[in-house]
Structure formats: C-alpha cells, structure tokens
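In practice, a research group might receive sequence data for several interacting partners and want a quick structural hypothesis before committing to experiments. The following worked case mirrors that situation: the sequences arrive first, and a predicted assembly follows.
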Amino acid sequence: MLITQLKSKETIESLAEGKIVIINCHGCKEVYFAEHEADELQKELAASKEVTQIITTDYICNPDNLKLQLKKHMDKINAADTILVFSCGVGIQTVAAQFEDKHVYSCCDTYPLPGFQGVTPLNVDCGQCGECYLNGTGGICPITACSKSLVNGQCGGAKNGKCEVDKDMECGWERIYRKLEKLNKLDAMKYDAPKVRNFGISEIQTAE
Amino acid sequence: MRITELFQRDEFVLTAEVGPPKGVEIDHLIKDAHEYLKTRVHALNVTDNQSSVMRTGSLATCKVLKDEGLLPIFQITCRDRNRIALQSDVLSAALLGIENLLLLTGDYTTLGDNPQAKPVFDLDSVSLIHAVKRLEEGFDLAGNAVDGAPPKFAKGAVVSPCSDSVDVQLAKMEAKVKAGCEYFQTQGVYEPEKFIKFMEQAKQFGVPVQLGLIIPKNVGMCRYMNANVAGVHVPDDMIEELKADKEKTKAGDTGVEICARLIKECKDYCQGVHIMSLGWENRIPEILDMAGIAPVSK
Ligand code: SF4
Ligand code: SF4
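A structural hypothesis for the assembly, expressed as tokens:
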C-alpha cells in the first residue's frame, strides 16, 4: 500500500502558474489519498489563482483510462498552462507522459505503507521516496528511471542515450534533460543547494 | 600540497592515474611511480576500485605514495559507501595529510568482478562535493559541528567532453561547480575539435580543466571503447593509423605519438593533462617529451 501526503501549500502555490487544471485521483484501494486536505487546499487555490477545472477521477495510472476520463475536459486541458496532479507518483508520471508539452506538477509525496502494492501495469514506476522530485524532472521519476537513482543529473556512464547498466534501457537523466529542454525548463537543473536524499523519511509522518 | 595551488600559479598541471593492485603487493606500483612519474607529473590519481573491480583501497595506497614523497589524489566514488562512511573517509584523508580529492559517482556494481554487491549511491558526485565543502566549513551533511580546525582539500571531479550528449554533461558540470568543485579531469579525449568546442562552453565556469588521455594500445582496445566506454570515441582515421604499421603499434609507439599529438593540439585550450596509461606508465615520459612538456620542477 501507499500513502500520498500533500506537499506544503507554499510549494504548491509556487507551481501554480497561468491557467490551471487540477487532477485528483481517488483511484485504487491501494493508495490512501488525503482527500479532505486536498479539497481545502484546492478551494484556497481557486480563490487566488486561475483554476479552470478540477477533475476528480480514478486509476489515472492507466493511460487508456486516463485518456477516456479526460476526454470531456480536453478543451480546458489544451488551454491550460499548468496541470497540478494530486495522486501517487505513478499517476503523476502517467499524466506527464500523456501531456508531453505541458507543465505537469506533483502536489503529493508518496510513501510506502506495509502491505499490498498497487498493481501498475506500466512502464513507469514510483519508488515511494517520500519527497517527490517530479516537479524538477519534467515528470519523469529519477528514482526509478535512473539505475543509480541519482537526483543531481546524469552520471558519466550514458552512451548513445542508453544507461551503463543496461544497453537496452534509456538513460533516465537523458530523458529528463530532453523533456526539460522541450518544456523550456532547463533552469530546473540550476539550483544552488545540491539535492540530497533523505532516507530517514521513508515512513509517513502521521499527522496529529 | 593542494593541486589547486598549482592551477592558481598558472602551472600546466600534469597528473597520471595509478590503480592499486588486487592484493597487497605494491612494490611494483611504487617502483614505476618513482621511475616514470615522479619527475614528470605533479600528482598521481589513485583509483577507487576502478570499474567496480575490488582491489586494495585508494586511501591506503595514497598514504603509501605520500610516504614515498609523491603527491596523491584520493579518488572517492559513491558506489560502495553511504554518507557516513564517505564523510568519515574524507576526514581520515585529512588525518593522513592527503589533501587532493577526486569525487565521483562511480560505475555501477554489476560492471565489475563482484556483480552480486549491493550498489549504494546514497550520495552522488554533486552531493559528495557538497558534503566535502560542508566539512571544510566545519559541519557534516546533517549539520552537526565537526570538532577542531576544519580540513581543507582541493576538490576535483570529472566530465566527458566527447560525450554524445555533451549538453547533459555540461549541465552536470555546472552543478558540480556550484557545489564547490575546483578542478576537472576529463574522460579520455581522441577528438580535439570536440574538446576545443567543449572548452569554449566550459570556460564560463572559470574552473581549470585537465585534458584526459587514455593511451590507445591497439585497434581492439579502441573498438572496445567505442562500443562500451561512455564518453569515449576513437575516430576511424585514428583506428586506421593504428592499423597501418602493425609492428609500430605493437611496440606502443603509435599510441605514444597519438597522445603527444593530442596534447599539442589541445594544450592551449586547457590547464593541464591527465594521463590514464592503464599499465603503460613507462611510456608517459616519452609522450610528454614528444609533446614538448618539460619535467616538473619540484
Ligand atoms: S520522485 Fe519518483 S519515487 Fe519519489 S515520490 Fe515521485 S514518483 Fe515516487
Ligand atoms: S547512465 Fe543514466 S540512467 Fe544509467 S545510472 Fe547513469 S544517469 Fe542513471
């Protein structure tokens, strides 16, 4: 099982630019979703930002289902500058892959919870790192798309865009860089304090 | 001495790579270092379980070389140690008077001779540079104070100028500079045009770069590198050159000539040379002579 916890209000606000579409996934029984908190936060966002649509659906981790569910909202989505996704890491990555040209941002951090793991019939995966990096990586998970789970960019091992560990695997950081390039968001790689993973937060901090 | 002092004095900084043995017999390495390297290069890189092949440790070998009057560069990868062990080893280096570091992410475990090992990668090259800088400021990565006068190092890293995605490499290089990297050694270069173009872009970071060279021993080695070694490409005409005179190539003379030529073509664009001789340490003096580079003054 997984748990998703909302990112801070400040973080989410800083991501909300231009016309915004929000997608909530109340998906599967394997993921606990902070429904009430998300609701409150989205109301506040709608008061101060241009939120054109809030969509609540399920199983967005399934690309075909996602397409069907979003069909009737496509005019709003096409017109949007930013898509904010409230879901587990797999859902966010599926949305980002579907809307290659949009800024798709993650509003949740995904943590593991003992028990079942959701069935994700996909080529994207979430390592439940608890500090979701997708917002700086074009919606491609560096924890699962890079063999070394690097968070500060490509190692010296990539050759012809393939990973040093497996020549049949695309280098995750090559993919991330090309995606950011396409989105005109390469600045996301220019930060002052290097990213250092926190392996001490792999368990959810239960709120009071 | 920190090799950053040499760069600051505008010296053309020469380094060579040595690999600790798989075992503890180190006399051969010491003898070669004295015979071929001591008067020709400023410092010696000591690799850290290079290519994920388990060997005697880099830190211990650095200490042995230092006791022999040579200047070692301690290479550290993030493959085998978590942040506690990495920071601890950096402090240990300071304790032993080893002041030059080359900080790397490291090859993946399955590429080596103990492929069953657990890959660590708790930190990466960028966060490791940051961690060393924090130690120099008197704190560990978690923000705990370190007792006494903090250590000071020359913090180096690597970059691949001839990578097929050099823009991605430059982004990483910038992250390393921002984290505190003070000098770079490059992956093996065989294409001077690409290197010079790379240097034009790398100039903006204001950090010295040493041209990396791998002595091309034979055609098979070059083909292998082209197929398997990231960031390395030996162009066809160079392979033809190695093919042309088989006896000469076998004697190692073609490889020596190629390296000397590469140095001549690139030296005005960089701040030094780093030679990875892979056992051919004895050819380094010839390469440098042929490139017109005088012995180092100590
Ligand atoms: S960065 Fe990857 S592993 Fe971490 S929460 Fe996001 S999708 Fe999951
Ligand atoms: S080659 Fe790419 S995917 Fe593979 S470990 Fe290096 S950065 Fe990660």
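Before designing any experiment, note the following. Chain A touches chain B through 32 residues (CB under 8 Å). The pocket of iron/sulfur cluster (ligand 2) is lined by residues A 146-148, 150, 154-155, 157-158, 163-165, 171-173 (CB under 6 Å).
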